[in-house]
Amino acid sequence: MKLTKRTKSIGGILAIAAGAIIAAYGIQAFVVPSGLGGGGVGGIALLLLYTLKLPIGLMTFLLNVPLFILGWREINKDFIFKTIWGLVIFSIFLDLFKGIHPVPINDIFLGAVYGGVFSGISSSIVFRFGGSLGGTDIVSKVIHRRYGVPMGTSALAINSLIILVSWAILGSNRALYTLVNLFVYGRVLDIIQSGVPSKSITIISDQPEALVDRIMVDLGRGATFLSGRGAYSNEPKNVIICVVSLPELGRLKQAVRDVDPEAFMIVSNAGEVLGRGFLKNE
């Protein structure tokens, strides 16, 4: 049953709210008890909490206000509205969850890891539905549009500056664990957004039709023929291109060995695969 545009919109709004709540929980349950910092506006809000005892939720919201003003004319309005919605929910629950300690965190490393896991999960949900939780993402988008600086470069520069300040205030130990937290966050976000790890396979075989038949029967995957020509033999060849999930790779290799042991096969990482049998292309 197809969902109406209105239903999808409401679902997206609720999903962004859920992601924001998960993010707030992860920070108050793991990051704050461990005394860790962070990148972007959230990192500044955490430093204000540790040094001046200012409420992290309120500070997160107030620090984002000038960023929204900066990006209002530069960024898609739908993105801005969804981000404001996510930020409001995020800021409210950051303060509502104050003092929550579901599990005593006596190990800073565990706080860094689990804080990163919760942040990665929450951000993947929010990004999936076209929003964000504010912060330096907006600044990076504006800098990219105005000056052509890659978003990753400007975000890295801004976050590096905030981490250096955290190093001076929190000390080297907690600053280094903050980097662990950010690394885990990035890895979890990448894994969830990319879906199940996939491999792109290129096969050159003298029995391409038999091999594709075997792939379709054994793995249930499709394949594509590309026309090629051997540089040494100067003979035309059919090059097989297919994509499989990581668990299917072993079965594919066995199928190739069974059909044509002399086949030439290249296995490459596929960063993201959209389409039938993989992530839905929307």
UniProtKB/TrEMBL annotation:
The chain crosses the membrane at residues 12-32, 44-72, 79-96, 108-127, 147-169. It is found in: Cell membrane. It is a multi-pass membrane protein. The keyword Hydrolase does not apply. Keywords: Cell membrane, Membrane, Transmembrane, Transmembrane helix. Pfam families: DUF2179, YitT_membrane. One of its GO terms (cellular component) is plasma membrane. InterPro entries: DUF2179, N-reg_PII/ATP_PRibTrfase_C, UPF0750_membrane, YitT. CDD domains: YitT_C. The keyword Cell membrane applies. Residues 221-275 form the DUF2179 domain. This is DUF2179 domain-containing protein. The lineage of its organism: Bacteria, Bacillati, Bacillota, Clostridia, Eubacteriales.
